[in-house]
Write a structure and sequence with these properties.
Elements: E1 44-50, E2 52-57, E3 63-73, H1 82-95, E4 106-107, E5 112-116, E6 125-135, E7 157-175, H2 177-183, H3 189-209, E8 213-215, E9 218-220, E10 227-231, E11 234-247, E12 250-263, E13 266-267, H4 268-275, H5 286-293, E14 297-300, E15 305-308, E16 311-316, E17 321-327, E18 336-342, H6 343-350, E19 362-365, E20 374-375, E21 380-382, H7 394-404, H8 408-422, H9 428-432, E22 435-437, E23 442-448, E24 454-456, E25 460-462, E26 481-482, E27 485-489, H10 496-509, E28 513-514, E29 519-522, H11 532-546, E30 553-557, H12 567-578, E31 581-585, H13 592-605, E32 612-613, H14 614-617, E33 629-637, E34 648-655, E35 664-671, H15 694-705, E36 713-719, H16 726-743, E37 751-758, E38 765-767, H17 784-789, H18 791-794, E39 809-811, E40 821-826, E41 838-845, H19 851-860, H20 876-893, H21 897-900, E42 907-910, E43 913-916
Helix pairs in contact: 2-3, 10-13, 12-20
């Protein structure tokens, strides 16, 4: 590594190894990501557009120079924070432009900057002066004006200069040529990623210079036209994601519409009333308000200055006293004295401001912990572009989806206009390395695969149309029989007699024989005053009193359709404590479509089969029919944003009853918060003979349900990991799976195929020939009224989907990785908005699938989701894993978890953080598809 003259010295080389010491060698990875082996050919061709813009590099030999940046104050205290860092780097360029040869920086906002070509070598330390306005804080200062002299009512806004030291030291060279090599398929992964990172940072720098809010690789302008009010004082702000990608067709700029949540700018009091859904300020819960407002930034209207909120005053404005220093004109030298005055009186007498509604409300404290500074609420407005990072409510999420979706042609116009408007080619860093960007979307050829045929009741063929099918005049393939069941009702507005009769009648049409329920249990109205856990306990006391034996299943009517606080306690009681299958409903309208969806879930939970693939029904799945094959779906669910102490939940589902690929069983464990790698796949005991891990549980289940056959092939579908984590999946998680298999006494390790599925990416597909040009053999989407009828599935199917790209559309050329084995598939039924395909990455394939066989298998696995009559956007094993993690996560959310499960709860230590262990499923439901 070179060192620029005049820069800080590089670290000394490591000491020599002593003669009697043997150096440890780093363990080489056991598995490496495979290269693409070929392209698919099946299906009929369809011309598409994709939101990738071709990028040309006219100076491929350009070199980025990376520098480490250290910022400190005059007294050598380190300075942190992206906002101040960007200001200082901007001032550095303005002050020392000639000394830096006019070179512009790409700065990451923290500790690294990049230039095209080296900086001059004669200087590495710089002194930068920033001038900032501030409020003079005297005893009892108010609202940015300081403590006023009674005879001096001038604004106390001051300016001061602060001096900073910036040290810039050379770190490394990053050649642009590494991108060209990557495009040719030459392995230079780290250098390529570094070069792409520099280009992305240049995009962020350009957006920061425009005053945008930056969220990872997305940027958002402060423009009210891009705001969408979704309720609760929260707005969706539309912006753009932009990133450079190496593809088979060359370097491209991936540009997409992005949305982030911000606090609705405006009066603080208006925000609080909207946030708490109250009509008048007197109904505001000020304890909640204090938590919500802490650390938010406001601007005062009487001084036009910005402050950060520390908290609230203890008393209302007209009762909150503070000490104010007043000069005494009668005393020689004008010495002053201190008087106690209320905030209301101060503003009325000394600022000439007559307060209205905030007189009887708390004030905002914008001072310091030991030096409060109170400002009346009505003089404060929230500054724009403040992110809202808490989880959205169901209503907010639905409103966001409804208001922010775009039709394909509208999105195309938005993206092409943005590429022209923001003129990336003119960015000084990008221009210096000769980058230019096309202004039109990339054209690519897709292929539409043949729709899989299904088998339903009486061995009847069912052919989905546009990714959808139904059970009108059809029965389920293997319906169950329900002899003993009960209905419990937590909702005062539901008629359980009517619900049970309609469910029995609908079940008969679908082939499910349902006897009359053994009992209908209504919740005692007095019980509704108790907490969720107590309400569930009281209900089970009634169940035990009325039923001598446990029922096959319980239909539970909840009062809320989404996020009922009874759901977690109820599921824990049924699945863990008693081992009873249950189905929760909260119907707003009872009709055949709704009841059919409920029956699909009930039938699969009780061991029935709703439908099978035709090739699965006849045991003709290629490469699986002759060799026992276990299919795994793996996902990790994390706590909501802002909940850093909530354990993450790892869920793995495994196929059962080989050669079927439609039936799955789940195993779930907790792990450290925000950790993505699953650490409980293999958990040996201290003696090394036993294993309490997830994989052993699923392997034994496969053996019991597959005629005593052991899997010779294992297909792993992994969700939720980024490209930087692919090697960890192969060399940590896959290694655990192999160890779990070997601990069962097996010598021959199965062949593995490991596939990562990504949903959260920014590649969108559009038909090239117009929004109505749906390929032959597929229907246009139904009206939106039909979408509403199946709205309970829309969230799983990614509401941002589209009828313009047909189910089964595959793209494995031009926009895919230049070397690695990946492809895009839009398998789901189109509805509304713009198509977002799933992005599949094949990490290893020891089984040896051809490109066509693997794509057909993945397409087929989008049709085996037992709780739906539509193809889904991602393979069913991953959907089941996601659902299992989400449902078991409810066990951790209800309030009295530690008290109600003390006998089954233990703490496992991950580092220094104790992780609560989930209660295990009761043996009666361990084999049930309980997560449906």
């Amino acid at each position: 590594m070179e060192q620029a003259a005049g820069s800080s010295p590089l670290p000394l080389p490591p000491p020599k190894v002593q003669p009697n010491m043997k150096p440890e060698q780093a363990e080489s990875p056991k598995h490496s990501i495979i290269s693409r082996r070929g392209f698919g050919t099946s299906g009929h061709s369809v011309p598409l557009l994709v939101n990738h813009f071709k990028v040309s590099v006219n100076l491929p030999d350009a070199v980025f120079y990376q520098y480490s940046v250290s910022i400190s104050t005059e007294d050598n205290k380190p300075v942190e924070g992206k906002g101040i860092g960007r200001k200082l780097i901007d001032r550095l360029y303005q002050t020392y432009s000639s000394e830096l040869s006019g070179k512009r920086f790409a700065y990451d906002g923290e500790k690294t900057l990049y230039t095209v070509g080296p900086l001059p070598q004669n200087k590495s330390e710089f002194t930068v002066v920033l001038e900032e306005s501030f409020a003079k804080h005297e005893t009892g200062s108010i609202g940015g004006g300081g403590s006023p002299n009674v005879s001096d009512k001038r604004s106390k806004r001051h300016f001061r200069s602060k001096t900073f030291k910036i040290d810039i030291s050379y770190a490394a060279k990053i050649p642009m040529k590494s991108i060209a090599l990557a495009l040719e398929g030459v392995e230079a992964e780290n250098l390529t990623l570094d070069a792409l990172r520099v280009l992305d940072i240049a995009l962020r720098q350009q957006a920061a210079d425009r005053g945008c809010l930056l969220v990872r690789q997305s940027f958002f302008h402060d423009d009210s036209r891009n705001l969408t009010d979704i309720g609760g004082g929260v707005s969706g702000l539309r912006g753009f994601h932009s990133s450079f990608r190496t593809t088979l067709g060359g370097l491209s700029l991936n540009m997409d519409v992005s949305t982030t949540m911000i606090l609705k700018p405006g009066k603080v009091i208006d925000f609080l009333m909207a946030n708490q859904n109250v009509r008048e300020a007197r109904y505001i819960d000020w304890v909640k308000a204090k938590r919500m407002l802490k650390n938010l930034r406001i601007k005062t209207t009487h001084r036009n200055m910005e402050f950060k909120i520390l908290g609230l005053s203890e008393k209302p404005c007209n009762q909150q006293y503070f000490p104010m220093k007043v000069k005494n004109s009668e005393t020689a030298g004008g010495e002053g004295h201190t008087v106690e005055i209320t905030v209301y009186e101060y503003f009325a007498k000394h600022c000439g401001i007559e307060l209205t509604y905030s007189t009887y409300l708390p004030c905002l404290d914008v001072g310091k912990p030991k030096r409060p500074n109170y400002v009346p609420l009505e003089l404060c407005s929230l500054v724009s572009l403040q992110r809202y990072t808490k989880a959205l409510s169901t209503t907010q999420r639905a409103s966001l989806v409804e208001k922010s979706r775009q039709k394909p042609q509208e999105r195309i116009r938005t993206l092409t206009d943005a590429v022209r408007k923001y003129r990336y080619d003119e960015d000084p860093v990008l221009a210096a390395c000769g980058i230019s960007t096309d202004k039109q979307l990339t054209q690519v050829d897709g292929r539409v695969l043949e729709t899989p045929k299904l088998k339903v009741g009486n061995n009847e063929d069912c052919i989905p149309r546009n990714g959808r099918w139904n059970f009108n005049n059809k029965t389920l393939l293997e319906p169950t029989r329900i002899n003993q069941w009960a209905v419990v009702n937590f909702s005062a507005r539901c008629d359980t007699s009517h619900i049970s009769r309609e469910l029995i009648n609908c079940g008969r049409k679908k082939g499910i024989i349902i006897e009359r329920p053994q009992t209908l249990i209504e919740e005692d109205p007095q019980s509704r005053r108790a907490g969720p856990v107590a309400r569930v306990d009281l209900m089970f006391e009634q169940i035990k009193g009325k039923l001598a034996d446990p029922p096959q299943f319980i239909l539970c009517v909840l009062p809320e359709k989404k996020n009922s606080d009874l759901y977690g306690p109820w599921k824990k009681k049924t699945l863990s404590d008693f081992g009873i299958v249950s189905q929760c409903i909260s119907p707003s309208k009872i009709n055949d479509q709704y009841l059919t969806n409920v029956l699909l879930k009930i039938n699969s939970k009780l061991g029935g089969i709703n439908s099978l693939l035709a090739i699965e029904h006849s045991s003709r799945v290629p490469l699986i029919k002759d060799t026992p094959t276990l299919i795994l779906g793996m996902d990790v669910s994390h706590g909501s944003p802002g909940q850093s102490d909530i354990p993450s939940i790892a869920a793995v589902v495994g196929s059962r009853c080989w050669p079927l690929i439609s039936r799955y069983r789940a195993a779930v464990r907790t792990q450290s918060p925000k950790v993505e790698m699953i650490d409980a796949l293999y958990k040996p005991s201290p003696n090394g003979k036993d294993d309490d891990g997830i994989i052993r549980e699923l392997l034994l289940d496969f053996y019991r349900t597959s005629q005593g056959r052991k899997p010779k092939q294992i297909i792993v579908f992994r969700d939720g990991v980024s490209e930087s984590q692919f090697n960890q999946v192969l060399n940590i998680e896959l290694d655990q799976i192999i160890k779990a298999y070997q601990l069962l006494g097996e010598v021959d390790v199965p062949k593995f195929t490991v596939i990562v599925a990504q949903k959260n990416h920014h590649t969108k597909l559009f038909l090239a020939n117009g929004p109505e040009n749906v390929p032959p053999g597929h229907l246009l989407c139904e009206t939106f009224s039909f979408v509403l009828l199946i709205a309970n599935h829309v969230y799983l199917l990614f509401i941002s989907c589209c009828a313009c790209v047909s189910p089964g559309t595959v793209v494995d050329t031009k926009i895919v990785h230049p070397r690695n084995y990946d492809f895009y598939m839009c398998a789901h039924a189109g509805m509304i908005g713009t198509s977002r395909p799933a992005h599949y990455h094949v990490l290893i394939d020891e089984i040896g699938f051809s490109a066509d066989d693997l794509q057909h298998l993945i397409h087929s696995l989008s049709y085996v989701y037992q709780r739906s009559t539509t193809a889904i956007s991602i393979v069913a094993p991953i959907c089941y894993a996601h659902l299992a993690a989400a449902q078991m996560g409810q066990f951790l959310k209800f309030e009295d978890f530690s008290e109600t499960s003390s006998g089954q709860r233990s703490l496992t230590s991950a580092g220094s953080v104790p992780i609560p262990e989930l209660p295990r499923l009761h043996k009666n439901v361990q084999s049930s598809m309980f997560f449906c």
